[in-house]
């Protein structure tokens, strides 16, 4: 027997929306001003400097257009992204994008926590003489770092939305100082000309299309968190432009640093190794010391404040009876467990690459369906009250919109098939092609069904 409030949606009323342009901008700069962005920048160094830059600009700009679109949806409805997904996937069907959101944001939290814990192992080595992670006995410092980071996350989320804004404001200032410092150190040892002219060893070269897919997976991950924050603002331009500009600035800047730092290490050492794109390794090799490691730990907190908020909102959408605060505790504890996976797998890079493949494969079709439904099918008009009403406008068949669900599965299959085509891997990547195809088919079928319903009524 279903209770009346089973499908409740938390809508932020107009009078409670006070998020400023600076707070929104800082949130999205802080989301990308982190360890994971450094690491991704280092991975695309396998395209060479100019190839990496081109892939970064193309993939990030396209991805964050979708962030702006979802940001607008949050501003208009006052609902989280996963609550909004009920309109296109069905009130019950939204459990699919919600589950995806939980897994991917728990995954991103684990990625950032692992990198921060690695930095903490360097700090413990300096203070207590413990072995650095990667050396015999180094797991002790890593495990300690993971537990400390998890405790810090729990303290942060327990303090509410205001504490997240404070973390973002302080963190972004420290991060900017650190990045300027790292930039000076990099270009003191290696010239810009050397970096731009560096040739990737043939055995390590990454095709341009593969780089597009890697960056698309990284950037689209933020799109499904967009409305979770823009619902706290009462101005359209804040919801649309601040996320786009902030996220783009963060990813361009920090991926660029990861890119040039990794290339500079390859030039000075004579060996290119994608594992060296880890920020802790970069900071250590550049001789930046414990202060740099502390800042890396802080950047993890700024990014994970967003990750955990989005994951918690997704759990709250699936189980409305569980409060948002309890949902945040659940995903934080789950992320702590997941953070230990690379310890057993043996390679953080392999684990991270597999994770990116998963994110790119499952997120693109979801985002495409949501945006086409809202902007092209519903003409930017969702009824917020209907998002929680059983048997209402977004109930479809038994609470599930089977068309959206089937197209999501087909999108995943097409993605896997396209990745096996050399031309796609070399030039375009599969992610955005799949988004276009899924969105186009969804639009055609929905329009056909709506026209048929209108004729039947007439």
From TrEMBL:
Where does the chain cross the membrane? 38-67, 105-128, 140-158, 170-188, 208-227, 239-267, 287-306, 327-349, 355-377, 398-421, 427-445
Q: Identify the keywords attached in UniProt to this record, alphabetized.
A: Membrane, Transmembrane, Transmembrane helix, Transport
Q: In which compartments does the protein localize?
A: Membrane
Which Gene3D superfamilies does this chain map to?
Hydantoin permease
Q: How does it sit in the membrane?
A: Multi-pass membrane protein
GO cellular component terms listed in the entry, alphabetical order: plasma membrane
Q: Which Pfam families match?
A: Transp_cyt_pur
- Predominant subcellular localization, coarse grouping: membrane
Q: Does the keyword Transport apply?
A: yes
Q: Does the keyword Membrane apply?
A: yes
Q: Name one GO molecular function term.
A: cytosine transmembrane transporter activity
- Tell me the protein family, please: Belongs to the purine-cytosine permease (2.A.39) family.
Its recorded name reads Cytosine permease
């Amino acid at each position: 027997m279903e209770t009346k409030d089973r499908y409740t949606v938390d809508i932020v009323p107009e009078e409670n929306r006070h998020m400023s342009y600076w707070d929104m901008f800082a949130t999205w700069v802080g989301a990308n001003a982190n360890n994971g962005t450094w690491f991704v920048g280092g991975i695309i160094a396998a395209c060479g400097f100019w190839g990496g830059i081109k892939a970064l600009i193309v993939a990030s700009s396209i991805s964050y257009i979708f962030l702006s679109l979802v940001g607008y949806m949050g501003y208009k409805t006052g609902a989280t992204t996963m609550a909004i997904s009920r309109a296109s996937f069905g009130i019950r069907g939204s459990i699919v994008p919600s589950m995806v959101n939980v897994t991917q944001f728990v995954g991103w939290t684990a990625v950032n926590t692992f990198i921060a814990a690695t930095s903490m192992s360097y700090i413990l080595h300096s203070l207590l003489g413990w072995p650095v992670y990667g050396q015999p006995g180094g797991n002790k410092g890593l495990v300690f770092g993971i537990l400390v980071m998890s405790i810090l996350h729990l303290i942060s989320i327990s303090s509410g939305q205001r504490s997240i804004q404070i973390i973002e404001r302080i963190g972004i200032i420290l991060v900017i100082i650190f990045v300027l410092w790292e930039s000076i150190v990099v270009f003191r040892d290696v010239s810009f000309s050397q970096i731009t002219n560096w040739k990737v060893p043939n055995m390590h070269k990454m095709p341009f299309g593969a780089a597009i897919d890697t960056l698309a997976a990284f950037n689209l991950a933020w799109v499904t968190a967009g409305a979770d924050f823009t619902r706290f603002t009462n101005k359209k331009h804040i919801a649309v432009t601040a996320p786009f500009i902030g996220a783009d600035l963060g990813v361009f800047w920090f991926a660029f640093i990861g890119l040039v730092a990794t290339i500079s290490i390859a030039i000075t050492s004579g060996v290119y190794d994608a594992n060296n794109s880890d920020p802790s390794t970069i900071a250590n090799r550049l001789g930046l010391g414990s202060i740099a490691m502390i800042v890396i730990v802080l950047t993890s907190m700024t990014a994970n404040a967003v990750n955990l908020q989005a994951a918690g909102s997704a759990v709250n959408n699936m189980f409305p009876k569980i409060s948002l605060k309890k949902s945040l505790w659940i995903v934080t504890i789950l992320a702590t467990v997941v953070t230990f996976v690379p310890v057993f797998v043996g390679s953080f890079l392999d684990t991270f690459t597999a994770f990116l493949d998963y994110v790119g494969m499952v997120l693109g079709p979801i985002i495409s369906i949501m945006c086409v439904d809202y902007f092209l099918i519903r003409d930017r008009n969702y009824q917020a009250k209907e998002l929680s009403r059983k048997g209402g406008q977004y109930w479809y068949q038994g609470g599930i919109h089977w068309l959206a669900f089937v197209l999501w599965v087909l999108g995943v299959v097409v993605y896997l098939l396209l990745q096996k085509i050399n031309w796609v891997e070399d030039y375009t990547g599969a992610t955005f092609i799949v988004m276009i195809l899924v969105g186009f088919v969804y639009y055609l079928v929905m329009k056909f069904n709506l026209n048929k319903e209108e004729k039947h009524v007439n």
